[in-house]
Amino acid sequence: MTEAEAPQRPGPQEELEFRTYREEPIRFAVRYGEDRRLPGRAGVLARQVTLSTGWPALQFRLPLSAQGDPRAYEMLEREVSAAVALERRYGAEKFGEVFTRVIGFDLECAEPFVLYRTPGGTPLTECRDRLGGDEQQHIIAQLALAVRLLSEVGLVHRAIAPDTVRWDGTHVRLCEPYAALRTGESREVFGAAPWASPEQRAGRGVADTRDDLWSVARLGYHLLSGHPDPGEGPPEDLGDYRRLAALEQSGLFATEAAARPSPVELMRLLHVPDPLATAVGTADPLSRGRAEYDAQLARKREVSRATGQSPSHPSYGTPAGSYDGPRNPYDLVPPKRSLRDRFFGGGDPDPTPPPPPAAPAPSPPPTRGRMCPHCLVPVEYDERLLVTIDAKGNRIPLDLSGEHRPDIRQDALRKAYHLCPHAGQGEEAHELPVPYLTNGEPLSIALVGSSSVGKTHLLAAMLGEVELGGLEPYGLKCLPLNPEAHRTYLRERVQSLQQGRQLGRTGQQTFARFADGLLVSARGTLPRPVVFFDLAGEDLAQDGEVARFLMGVDAFVFVLDPLRALRMPSLDPVREQNGLPRRDLGDEAFTTVLNRIPRQNGGLVGAPAAIAVNKSDLVRFEPAVDRWLGRALPRRLDREALRAESRDAYAFLSHHASPAWLKPFDDCARCTLHFVAATGGEAKGDRFPHGARSRRVLAPLLSIFAMCGLLPEAEPSEGRA
Q: What is the pTM assigned to this prediction?
């Protein structure tokens, strides 16, 4: 890309503060040139800057006027992520000069920006006519090398064209990775013929390294022939150019990515040495943590095998009697004993897996009770205990004895509550939404963590994604457990967060009430009530009566705060700003809850669990984090990818935090780990300056659903993949 023009009159000297690609804070005196708009980068302004006493640089920034489009910020953040990944991987290597080199960035300031070294050389559009045959071959070879290097870090550049590639007589240099995608991400429409591949121009399928090789082929043809081709297939006169024989024979001009060679194969055909094949790689600092994860998983598998506690779910085809322990943390479980059976005995499951049940039709309220999640006593459905709740919180008796119209009756029950008859003297009266008692087996999920770890923001982000249909690609339909309570939660929590407002801290309670509830059904099956508990960290850490309900909770999401957990100097300024000291002893709430909830015979917690590494945006450029946080969730449950994320997250925490922070994984028979970000940035005052941008917040919930048998195995419906 053409660099911004030099300013006619340098502006006054100011100071510019930013972070280097290693996230070290740095400050320079700076002079700014004039702004310039660039084609293909909507909203972004470019200008030359002079750092200190004469170091030239190129700045791309997102002005306030362009920040109404959330995609603009997302694209700049994605560019910074790609540029940092390339610099960290190849910055010390001589062959890294094929990329425009990043200096630093600031994504949290009022006008986010990224700084690059001013690229040398001349765009190919301006120097093509002066190039000799050897130079043309050298350019093609170096472009193949650049694509090889990009593929190694999982990136597709997508913007290789004559005006974005520079040549200085020795080196090719690609422009800034402003259009880059990660391999495997859904293609986005970008580029024009002939330089962009047909799949890329159509936004069809997933990004592939061979998209960039299409661009290399078209650019090579353009250099040698002196004119571009239409870009829809192999050029008709391709055989006229002897120097393109290797490219033609390799299939590089094929219209489908699958028919093109890999970068390594192309380099071999061009007789270009692969520096990555002979380079001595640095030791992976997370390899030890990944080995520890495997060992811990094997230990828990052995405990489960010895006690027979956690066989695979029969719907996944495990033959009776053939169980050899959970293969990974995502193995599902057989129909579990209900809370009532767990507390009052009986209900031992039949060891022989039953045949898969047919999808049940809606049924009247069951005769057996549902365990009250607050006081842990069964509640039998009794129409004499129905109430509604008015705007002032008054309980008003609901008499449906004279209502015989089925639709009216059903609508009234949908919005009604059922008093719990077991509130003892001195205890707070409470009630349950009627659908909690009249549907399938309830699932209660508690978010666990100390104060200010982001539990409330994470739950609001989760339910916001659910409201937007985030669970539908996985075959799940969701309705509110109680419409009025759900509307209130959406208005006070979800909408406030989506409007960029920081949510207030959860206050301490005298009685544990769930924050919100859903009715979740999987392709026509009887809906299951799912309720979410979000208690103040002080309540969870005190081991008091308010947390008594934890003994009956079905699943846990342990919310981990990097500011408290990680020994990373780059987080020290944020810790100081927020007054959150690092703790090597782990989260007090984790320990208190794990000490309180029931254990299996093998000493492990039987309830499924997930560790959500919240605020992962604070460490988003760490390779293990960037690998996951920068990707959207797949549109289907990918168990191998989920296991790989757990392994990476465990290794990352093992390397940067004390073992105490991994206690939930060590103590729970089934526990997954996830990188998530509820807000995507730091709050300034009571607002998030660039809006709340949640990342992968449904991953822990999907994992819990899978382990609780709620997520169907079937693929998503056609058109939603």
A: 0.85
